[in-house]
């Protein structure tokens, strides 16, 4: 499953970069095209920061942080290569999205964003962002509801009959 998760990460990067290439060559900067009228448009912008343009101008941090996250995810995936498909897939998506945006930051010092939700005011985002968010959410669900159930100590039943120890029996 480790190799499959690396393929998932690679496909995510390729899809992200392909979509960004198409947007960059089809929609002029700051231009917009309705995708689903009044719901979703393709709006070509450049983002020099992170989500909501926070940390704008902090390119080195925005390059080094994903590299660290990708490295930790890759090591964790390798050490748990025979682990849960959900865990490996979630980390593959985080890695793929991280690499997709990292390529833009290293190459252009900014990220191409293009998905604009017309239903409400939300920052314009891209496919790599979706991969990171979906992967992180999947990983959290896995850690809380799947891995957390494995490691949680068993709670004794409230009305369970307990057998007294020898010391307790002697005292009675």
If you compute it from the alpha carbons, what radius of gyration comes out, rounded to the nearest whole angstrom? 23 Å
Strand content: 5-15%
The percentage helix is 55-70%
The 3D shape can be described as globular
- Which sequence of SSEs, written as H and E, runs from N to C? HEEHHEHH
Structural class: mainly alpha
Mean pLDDT: 87
Q: Span from first to last CA?
A: 57 Å
Number of individual domains: 1
> How many strands, which pairing sense, and closed or not: the largest β-sheet?
3 strands, antiparallel
What's the β-strand tally? 3
Counted by DSSP, the helix tally is 5
Low-pLDDT stretches are none
Numbering strands along the chain, what is their spatial order in the largest sheet?
Answer: 1-2-3
What's the structural blueprint in terms of helices and strands?
Blueprint: H1 2-26, E1 32-36, E2 40-47, H2 59-79, H3 85-108, E3 111-117, H4 127-151, H5 166-171
Antiparallel strand pairs: 1-2, 2-3
Helix pairs in contact: 1-3, 2-3, 3-4
Descriptive overview:
The protein has five helices and three strands, in the order H-E-E-H-H-E-H-H. It has one domain. The chain has 172 residues and is mainly alpha-helical. The radius of gyration is 23 Å and the shape is globular. A hairpin with a 3-residue loop joins strand 1 (32-36) and strand 2 (40-47). Helix content is 59%, strand content 12%. The chain has a three-stranded antiparallel β-sheet.
Task: Name its key features.
5 helices; mainly alpha; 172 residues; three-stranded antiparallel beta sheet
Question: How would you concisely characterize the structure shown here?
Answer:
The chain has 172 residues and is mainly alpha-helical.
């Amino acid at each position: 499953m480790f190799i499959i998760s690396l393929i998932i990460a690679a496909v995510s990067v390729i899809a992200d970069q392909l979509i960004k290439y198409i947007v960059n060559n089809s929609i002029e900067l700051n231009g917009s095209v309705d995708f689903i009228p009044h719901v979703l448009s393709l709006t070509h912008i450049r983002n020099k920061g992170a989500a909501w343009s926070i940390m704008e101008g902090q390119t080195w941090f925005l390059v080094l942080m994903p590299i660290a996250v990708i490295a930790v995810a890759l090591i964790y995936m390798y050490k748990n290569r025979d682990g849960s498909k959900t865990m490996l897939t979630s980390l593959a998506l985080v890695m793929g999205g991280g690499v997709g945006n990292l390529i833009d930051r290293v190459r252009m010092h900014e990220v191409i964003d293009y998905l604009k939700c017309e239903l409400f005011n939300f920052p314009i985002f891209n496919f790599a962002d979706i991969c990171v968010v979906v992967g992180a959410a999947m990983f959290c669900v896995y850690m809380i509801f799947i891995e957390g159930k494995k490691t949680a100590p068993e709670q004794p039943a409230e009305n369970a009959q307990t057998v007294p120890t020898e010391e307790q029996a002697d005292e009675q």
